Amino acid sequence: MKLVLHNLTKSFATHRVLDGLSGDFGEPRSLALIGPSGGGKSTLLRIIAGLETPDAGTVTLEGEALAFADEEKLRAHRRRLGVVFQAFNLFSHLTALANLTLPLEKVHGLSASEAEHLAREALRRFHLADHAHKKPAQLSGGQQQRVAIARAIAIKPRLLLFDEPTSALDPEMTAEVLEVIEELKDEGRDFLLVTHEMGFARHVADRVAFLADGRIVEHAPAEELFGTPRSPECRDFLARILKY
Ligand SMILES: Nc1ncnc2c1ncn2[C@@H]1O[C@H](COP(=O)(O)OP(=O)(O)O)[C@@H](O)[C@H]1O
Ligand SMILES: [Mg+2]
After folding, report:
1. pLDDT tens digits for range 78-101
2. Pocket test for ligand 1, best of 8, 12, 53 (most atoms within 8 A of CB)
3. Which tens digits make up the pLDDT trace of 189-220?
4. Ligand 1 pocket list (CB less than 6 A)
5. What is the distance in A from the centroid of ligand 2 to the CA of 133?
6. Which fold has domain 1-80+158-244?
7. In Å, what is the CA distance from 238 to each residue of 122, 201, 205, 242?
8. Over the Cα atoms of the chain, what is R_g?
9. Whole-prediction pTM value?
10. By alpha-carbon position, which residue is closest to atom 17 of ligand 1?
């Protein structure tokens, strides 16, 4: 993905969450975003996803500036992304299969049979074929998150965005979901991943950006950022969270 962020600001009431955030990340296949809680990672991801409008600044993806003022273009942008949130965000009254087919029909305009074909293919891909008829409450957390990932990739998006996809999961289910993300990487899918799994970020991300206090404080190839962080903020953050 080719992603350039320029001077983004975003406030909620009087709270400035993004504070002139900029970053030109080059062209990594996978970019991890790390940083302290409340630093603005989710807000940034939602802006890149076209789900939130910045007060000022620009997002350029693959050389194209996001048109925040043009709802039509923004919708087209959203259709080309797959987004996976921390809390799965599945419809609880729908089966796993229907959670995939609904957006394929309503958002992407596929026929019922095309949608079912793509949905079953995506579920099979993540070993969920036997669970297609189950509702989220009948699935484990790891399975629910894999359904959410299957939904995100069903339309073959140009970019996947993950916001702490494992933070609601126990270690075994975390491993299950991280394996799926690694498979997507091996398939050559581009993604942006917000995560607290530092070992995984180091392993799977080409580039890592450290975000704190509404700014990208530094970004570098994964080995470099984790091996020799340059800013005191990032050094402190890593020392604190890698201590235990
Ligand atoms: N819709 C919103 N309304 C008000 N405050 C928000 C909203 N979204 C985020 N915030 C605030 O913005 C700050 C940054 O949040 P967030 O982007 O979720 O950070 P992170 O994902 O790094 O933890 C937090 O203090 C949060 O409470
Ligand atoms: Mg967050």
Report:
1. 999 999 988 878 999 999 999 999
2. 12
3. 999 999 999 999 999 999 999 999 999 999 99
4. 12, 17, 37-43
5. 31
6. Rossmann fold (3.40.50)
7. 36, 12, 16, 6
8. 18
9. 0.94
10. 40
